[in-house]
Amino acid sequence: MVPFSFAGHELAALPQGALFWRARRALLVADLHFEKASWFAARGQMLPPYDSLATLSELTALVAATGAREVWCLGDSFHDADGGARLSGDARTALRRLTDATCWTWVTGNHDPAITPGLGGNAVDEAEVDGLVLRHEADPADPRPELSGHFHPKLRVRVRGRSVARRCFVATGAKLILPAFGALTGGLDAAHPEILRALGGPAEALVPVEDRLLRFPLAA
User: Fold this and answer.
1) Range of the domain at 70
2) According to the model, what pLDDT value does residue 220 have?
3) Total structural domains in the chain?
């Protein structure tokens, strides 16, 4: 867990792709994409059907490790509007344990404009918490400090002649995009024009590594 300052708040970047907001004991994650594998399976592309359980296992471990009392999911928590209904019994039980044990908020996204009833938590389109706007997709026209997801940013670098990709946070002084937390999610290059357009200014990729936060300027 690597602390850093953003818009006057101390946040901590976790290598798993989550943020911890210590002052609120809040864990923030984006783009869980529960039931992505079952969505593809229904269309003939068979993938191992364990993505939701794997994501929930990782999230459960982080809630326990951080002692989080709030969890904010920044949109696209489900791969589609019917994803919640397709959760297995084990996955539904694991999710309800989490939503019952914490103050859980679903921020809706483009993949999940509504949350399946019966899963716990509270659903909102966006929220403003202690001066930070929490939404799914960054709004370049909004000058307020903002946390979002949507783009699944990854940093690609060459190490000893090999291309290596790591999920990363992307930040400006007022905007911070979280990587995708889901077990079965791809990624968009952190310097992609769509990401830089959404941020509306010079940005850098942030990669938490053990006790350090590596920073990489992103060229437009």
Assistant:
1) 2-218
2) 63
3) 1
* pLDDT tens sequence across 130-167: 999 999 999 999 999 999 999 999 998 877 778 788 99
92-96 long-range CB contacts below 8 Å, 24 or more apart?
Answer: 92/119, 94/53, 94/56, 94/57, 94/60, 95/56, 95/119, 95/120, 96/120
Query: Cα separation of 68 and 198, whole Å?
Result: 29
Question: Whole-angstrom Cα distance, residue 62 to residue 67?
Answer: 8
Residue owning tokens 């350090």: 212
- 168, two tokens: 């990363």
Q: How far apart are CA 21 and CA 216, in angstroms?
A: 23
Q: Does residue 63 contact residue 98 with C-beta atoms inside 8 Å?
A: yes
What number of residues does the chain have? 220
Are 54 and 42 in contact by the 8 Å Cβ rule? The answer is: no
Which CATH number belongs to the domain containing residue 86 in this structure?
Answer: 3.60.21
Q: Using 50, 70 and 90 to split pLDDT, how confident is the model at 125?
A: very high
